[in-house]
Every structure is written in C-alpha cells, then in structure tokens.
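User: I'm preparing a small set of examples for a lab meeting where we compare how different chains pack in three dimensions. I only have the primary sequence for this one, and I'd like the structure in token form so I can line it up with the others. Please keep the answer compact; I'll paste it straight into my notes.
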Amino acid sequence: MKKSKLYEIQDVAIQIANTLATMLQVDVEIIDSAHMRVAATGHFACRVNQSNVGDGHAYRDTLETGKKMFIDNPGQNLYCVGCKEIDTCDALLEVSAPIIVDDRIEGAIGMTCYKEDREQFMAEHLQESMFFLEQMCMLVAGKIKERANLQKHLSASRMLHAMMGMVDKGVLILESSVSL
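Assistant: Understood. Below is the structure token output for the 180-residue chain.
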C-alpha cells in the first residue's frame, strides 16, 4: 500500500503535533485522508499508525468537506453519531481543520480538550486558537509540497546523472509524442 503524502513527512507531523500539544496543553491528532493517525499526543499517542475510523467522526466530516470543525459537546453532538465512544466520551471540546495541498484534502489536524481549564481557554480564545491551527495546517501543507518538489528534483537529477553516464554511447531523447 502506498504511503500518504502525510506519512512521507511523518517526522515533521510528529514535531508539529508535539509543539501544538505543549503550547496549548491539549491532545493533538494528525490524520491523513485515509483516516490513519500519522501523529498523536495524549490519549491517542499509543495509536499512531492506526486508523481512527471508529473513533474519529468529527475528523471524517473535516476530511469530506474541507471545513473546520468546532464541537463543544463531544459525545452529544451530531458529528459524533456512529463513534464507538459516543456514550463514554470524556472529551470536553474538539476542533479540527483540514490540511489542503493544491486544492486536495490530504488530512486534518485535530485538537481535543480533556481538562476544564483548557476547554475554557479554547472557548474564550476560539478565534485565535483556530487561526493558530490553520497556520499549522498550512505549515504541514507547505512541508508536503516541499517534499514533493524535492522528490521531483532528485528524480530529474538521477535521470541527468544516468544520461551523463551514457553520453559516450549516444543518447536519443524523445518527447511523449515521440517527436525529436
């Protein structure tokens, strides 16, 4: 199975998740478009590289619509219907935003509050918190694009290196239309 673009920068995703968690004192998940946890802190840290399909219904909507989500009553919200933890959810507040690269949703970053003081802080500073989350999503998107450009340049470099090794043998390069 081919790794997602987010998995290609998993080390960066982990650093960003840890930074968000430390700065805002919340649990953070970064999931890819296939609903796999690329990075996580707190409650879900032990579930990195596992699917969040059964317990990530708010993210499902973010991944499908590309819209930010704010849930101030997890476990009782319509977005939580179908979640296996709907009756036992101890989260107090949850927000998520999409990671968009070239108009394609590559994943989402979600932040969850389990402590009342963090819930109050996030609710009081929702606009600033969402702005910060969006900036982190754009940072991850930029890293994905940077990685893709690096791969493209490395591929071109390998091709040029191979061609240089064959110059004494003669090289004929054709376009895809097979014209010279």
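A couple of notes for your slides: The two ends are 37 Å apart (CA to CA). The first strand starts at residue 27 and ends at 32.

User: Perfect, thanks.
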